Design the sequence.
């Protein structure tokens, strides 16, 4: 049912038609209508602010991957890099802040938002906060890729790095508590305990369809918002399998996504190869773009090649 709805909306949006406008009746929220609301009576397709562009990302069929693996199923990816700041976390950032505004807990121009983030949630909060008039401080593990730190600073965010290897996730939370004691009018945007985080996917995404070197996966704790009773199956994918899938998607489908997207791509193959899934359509989500991971292990081989080419001059 959910997959069918994803496909239906993907078609309605006219993916590949060259226009984000849609026609016909479509139920959308009054407060955050998204791309479908951009079709005005004059036929204009212009957003009044950047948060209206969150959601309604396109779907792509990975035909070459299925063909090369001899898989008799349709492999579909939902391309979240098409979000305004190129990540599925844009959805969560908007809902977390809007939920807090609805409860009258924060005030533009007065409240400073603080969040623990490994990158993408913080980047999402950064642009939503900027649009709405909030200052923002990101508390991050020191091991987070430099690309994300650079982007956050470019967006005007104060970045505080914490050596999580010494105190783990608790060290990040302790630093947040310290900020609350030192500053006035601070509100913590807590993606790990606030139900508004998964609520973003119930409201929007759902109506659209161990140790590793993959950034953003497995922070070392189970967030309160995770309902494990909803998990049907856990599939193990090695770091090497995910990296190999990354290079396949780049070679066969022209994709360059985040490292966790390749883990999902590998799981997509494993599930699609099962006999009971022959002829079915299977959808996964590619969570963010690859530009924020250029200094990670995923791109190490081509980075070294490019550096060596430049050193020759």
Sequence:
């Amino acid at each position: 049912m959910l997959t069918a709805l994803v496909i239906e909306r993907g078609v309605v949006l006219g993916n590949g038609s060259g226009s984000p406008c849609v026609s016909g009746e479509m139920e959308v929220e009054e407060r955050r209508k998204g791309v479908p609301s951009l079709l005005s009576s004059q036929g204009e397709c212009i957003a009044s602010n950047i948060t209206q562009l969150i959601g309604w990302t396109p779907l792509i069929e990975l035909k070459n991957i299925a063909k090369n693996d001899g898989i008799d199923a349709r492999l579909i990816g939902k391309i979240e890099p098409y979000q305004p700041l190129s990540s599925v976390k844009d959805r969560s950032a908007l809902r977390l802040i809007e939920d807090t505004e609805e409860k009258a807990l924060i005030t533009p121009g007065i409240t400073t938002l603080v969040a623990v983030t490994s990158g993408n949630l913080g980047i999402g909060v950064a642009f939503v906060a900027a649009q709405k008039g909030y200052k923002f401080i990101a508390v991050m593990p020191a091991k987070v890729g430099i690309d994300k730190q650079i982007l956050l600073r470019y967006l005007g965010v104060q970045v505080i790095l914490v050596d999580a290897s010494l105190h783990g996730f608790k060290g990040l939370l302790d630093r947040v508590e310290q900020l609350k004691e030192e500053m006035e009018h601070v509100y913590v945007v807590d993606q790990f305990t606030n139900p508004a985080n998964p609520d973003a996917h119930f409201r929007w995404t759902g109506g659209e369809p161990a140790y590793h070197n993959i950034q953003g996966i497995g922070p070392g704790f189970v967030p309160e918002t995770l309902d494990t009773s909803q998990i049907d199956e856990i599939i193990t994918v090695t770091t090497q399998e995910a990296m190999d899938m990354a290079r396949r998607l780049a070679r066969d489908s022209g994709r360059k996504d985040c490292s966790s997207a390749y883990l999902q791509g590998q799981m997509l193959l494993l599930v699609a190869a099962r006999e009971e899934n022959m002829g079915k359509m299977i959808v996964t989500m590619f969570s963010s773009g690859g530009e924020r991971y250029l200094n990670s292990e995923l791109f190490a081989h081509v980075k070294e090649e490019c550096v060596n080419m430049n050193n020759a001059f």
Residues 164-182 form the longest helix (19 residues). Residues 85 and 124 are 6 Å apart (CA to CA).
